[in-house]
Design a protein that fits this description.
Layout lengths: L44 E16 L11 E16 L3 E2 L2 E3 L2 E15 L4 E10 L2 E12 L3 E11 L18 E11 L6 E12 L2 E4 L6 E5 L3 E13 L7 E13 L4 E6 L2 E4 L7 E13 L4 E14 L2 E15 L9
Antiparallel strand pairs: 1-2, 1-19, 2-5, 3-4, 4-7, 5-6, 5-7, 7-8, 8-9, 9-10, 10-13, 11-12, 12-15, 13-14, 14-17, 15-16, 17-18, 18-19
Length: 336
């Protein structure tokens, strides 16, 4: 049996926990959700994935990538994802139709101090976040060495959001995403793989409030592009391949690629949102998967350290969880 047949899909999404922050710049897509097996297609049936992600940072960087002086504190959030895939047994356009939905519960906290200006800021909240829906998602096996998927998704602003509030858990605007995932099997037995996932975010308009005056204005966040990559190796823990360990190097890179539009209020004076600097972030880390092929079950853990960030926090991301597939139809038992 080729190792590929024992690998489950391990690509999951998490929606941003939109908490208040000083000069915070982040899109709706929290990077770190893909790594190994980015292009793998779930078996026909229903796949459930549970993913917990923690992001924490104690450094806020300016547009040049340097820590902003005089600001101390921390920014962190937890999000628990429940993701449901459905893959029919019949092909469509030569591939597999694999739509899914992600329901998220999020909580987070911001504590920051600016001693030189006698200012401080704090906030936090918890609740159900925005909903991620991918109604169009297709996956193909391309020859013997490539798995590829591509799709369209939207983010519905179902999470709590009030302009200027300190306990928001939603982004406050609609989003549209164009996504892709690719897995290239380097070795013939498909145990060694190179993986790449991409996401292009297009954002809708959001109402924002100035601090502390509370004046309202409208801003449309700029578009963002994310790539997530991984190099992995499967190691059999038992000779019959009933237990597998997959380990690898993973990373992510995210950039704002177009300017913000609309208006923001600075010191009570309206200013073009396009003046807000572009953000970016880069991280590298490790991933391990424990796979039980006969049970269609996979447990995963990932750790990322951000080594470069501009106009946003710089910190670390931890992701862990599981995937389980209920095959429909059930596979036939092997004849003796």
């Amino acid at each position: 049996m080729k190792i590929k047949k024992a690998i489950l899909v391990s690509a999951c999404f998490v929606l941003v926990c939109a908490l208040p922050s000083l000069a915070q710049q982040k899109g709706q897509w929290v990077p770190g959700q893909f790594g190994l097996n980015a292009g793998v297609i779930p078996d026909p049936g229903v796949t459930y994935a549970n993913l917990a992600v923690n992001y924490s940072a104690d450094q806020l960087n300016g547009p040049a990538g340097n820590s902003v002086p005089g600001i101390t504190g921390n920014y962190s959030f937890w999000a628990d994802e429940n993701i449901f895939y459905y893959v029919p047994n019949h092909k469509f356009l030569g591939g597999y139709f694999m739509p899914y939905v992600a329901l998220t519960y999020a909580s987070g906290e911001l504590v920051a101090d600016i001693p030189g200006n006698n200012l401080s800021a704090g906030g936090g909240g918890s609740g159900f976040g925005d909903m991620y829906v991918q109604p169009l998602n297709l996956g193909w096996h391309v020859g013997e060495r490539v798995d590829f998927n591509a799709g369209y998704a939207f983010v519905a602003p179902t999470g709590r959001y009030t302009a200027g509030a300190s306990n928001n858990v939603g982004s406050g605007y609609w989003g549209n995403d164009i996504t892709s995932g690719t897995t290239f099997y380097i070795t013939k037995n498909k145990g060694t793989s190179a993986n790449l996932a991409t996401a292009w975010e297009i954002h809708g308009q959001r109402t924002v409030a100035s601090v502390p005056a509370g004046q309202l204005s409208n801003k449309t966040p700029g578009q963002a592009f994310t790539i997530e990559w991984g190099l992995g190796q499967v190691l059999p823990l038992k000779k019959d391949l009933s237990r597998l360990l997959q380990v690898g190097l993973v990373g992510y890179d995210q950039w704002q690629v177009s300017s913000n539009s609309g208006t923001v209020i600075v010191a009570g004076i309206p200013a073009p949102a396009s003046r807000i600097p572009y953000y970016s972030v880069h991280a590298i880390g490790v991933q391990s998967n424990f796979i039980l092929p006969a049970k269609d079950l996979l447990f995963f853990f990932k750790y990322y350290d951000e080594y470069r960030a501009k106009a946003r926090p710089q910190g670390r991301t931890i992701v862990f969880g599981l995937n389980w597939t209920l095959r429909i139809p059930k596979p036939q038992a092997a004849k003796p």
